[in-house]
Amino acid sequence: MTLEELVACDNTAKKMQTVSEAVEQLLVAAQRQHCLTVGVYESAKLMNVDPDSVVLCLLAIDEEDEGDIALQIHFTLIQAFCCDNDINILRVSGMQRLAKVLGESSEDSSEPRDLHCILVTNPHTDSWKSQGLQEVASYCEESRCNNQWVPYVPLLER
What we know:
- The protein is α/β, with parallel strands linked by helices and 158 residues long.
- Helices cover 49% and strands 15% of the residues.
- The protein has five helices and five strands.
- Strands 1-4-2-3-5 form a five-stranded mixed sheet, with helices on both faces.
- The longest helix has 30 residues, at 3-32.
- The relative contact order is 0.23.
């Protein structure tokens, strides 16, 4: 490996960490403002009714879910819809970390929420401007410029 390749790898790792942290900040801020839609079915309904309100689509999957053909079909359809409607898409892994960020408890006796698809919506007011949203949107745009239409970021346990 050349020095340039080593520096590029280090910069990529730092960028991924920064974007991962921005995603977590964004999710917490959006949840406080009631600007999250959680679940594949719920997300599809919202995008059908009001796609202009959606500013980011998170598709979350861990390695053990990669073989779920139905989930992959849902993801393909959601990705196509997002591309047609200029909605930023980000693929993340780390479902346990995602659940912690959203305050999901494994001790609840109720059915856990479907965290595979999460939409961040923009309230029709300027009451919140999330630095995390700007960081994530910038990362998605950079990725599209590099022909990576669905960028990937791991959410790491802390």
